[in-house]
Design a protein that fits this description.
The protein is of the alpha+beta class. Helix content is about 30%, strand content about 20%. It has two domains: about 5-25 and about 255-285; about 35-230, chitin-binding protein cbp21 (Coagulation Factor XIII, Chain A, domain 1). The chain is globular and about 40 Å long. The model is unreliable at about 10-30, about 240-245 and about 250-288 (pLDDT under 50).
């Protein structure tokens, strides 16, 4: 093989590989979930993605598979930029309007819940990557109907906890104190964590009961569960600078499965042809 042909082959392979990497979606970079009060996704993850115990978690796996639970720390929107109410419609708050986590929006009263009382409350958030930002906790208003999908108007406008999250955590946890108001019955604590170093934001629903009678107690995942399940996670921690690809939203149209391979083949071939023509022209000029 001549030197010119070797250069052409090498360039074609390099360009095709680069094109493939640039067009292939990267894993979302998202990093945390509330363990106190335990979030819905954390409660089902704690039961075990392959062997859920409660009926609600069994139904979640039957509907959406096990991956949402292995990715318990990923309920995010990469380009939120503080526009939470504009980009998450009513009824989709718990999933952040993402198809992958749609089961978290189910308006059912059998979600495992944390028993709480009015007054000071110590929030406990497990983070697998710390981000500078603001974490805000809201609670549903008195009279909230848990059999109906959660709406923005169901949340009390006054936060029950606010925390300026630092770029480091306490052994993988953010811990801060808030105040729960007087309530009766079942309610939802809603988390909004907006990063300051990017437009990414994280969300989560935690079921709580004031009085706690007749409910299944939510349990947080153990560190052993987190460690042993880590290889099954698709969550990346590389995107601290806000370079995450936006995740698919519930309302977003899906792209045909054949579209991406076609785009890769066309883009790779076109780029390789252009580079090859350039190198061939240079080779001819040298031999003349």
């Amino acid at each position: 093989m001549s030197a010119v042909r070797r250069r052409l082959a090498t360039a074609s392979l390099a360009v095709s590989a680069a094109t493939f990497l640039s067009l292939t979606p990267s894993p979302a970079s998202a990093h945390g979930s509330v363990f106190g009060p335990v979030s819905r996704v954390s409660a089902c993850f704690a039961e075990g993605p392959e062997t859920p115990k409660s009926q609600i978690c069994k139904d979640l796996v039957a509907d959406s598979g096990t991956q949402p639970l292995y990715d318990w720390n990923e309920v995010n929107i990469a380009n939120a930029d503080g526009r939470h109410q504009q980009i998450i419609p009513d009824g989709k708050l718990c999933s952040a309007n993402r198809v992958k986590y749609r089961a978290l929006d189910w308006a059912r009263t059998d979600w495992p819940a944390t028993a709480v009382t009015a007054g000071s409350y110590n929030f406990n958030v497990r983070v697998t990557a710390a981000h500078r930002g603001t974490m805000t906790m809201y609670i549903t208003k008195q009279g909230f109907d848990p059999t109906k999908p959660l709406k923005w108007s169901d949340l009390d406008s006054a936060p029950v906890g606010t925390y300026s999250t630092p770029g480091i955590s306490d052994s993988g946890y953010y811990r801060f104190t808030g105040t729960l108001p007087a309530r009766t019955g079942r309610h939802i604590v809603y988390k909004v964590w907006q990063r300051h170093d990017s437009t990414e934001a994280f969300y989560g629903c935690s079921d709580v009961t004031f009085g706690g009678a007749g409910v299944s107690a939510a349990k947080a995942p153990t560190e052993a569960r987190i460690d042993t399940s880590a290889p099954r996670s698709t969550v990346s921690h590389a995107g601290h600078g806000g370079d995450e690809h936006a995740p698919a939203l519930v309302s977003a149209p899906s792209q045909p499965a054949s579209a991406l391979p076609g785009a890769l083949a066309w883009a790779g071939g076109a780029a390789a042809f252009a580079v090859g023509a350039l190198l061939l022209g240079r080779g001819r000029r040298r031999t003349n």
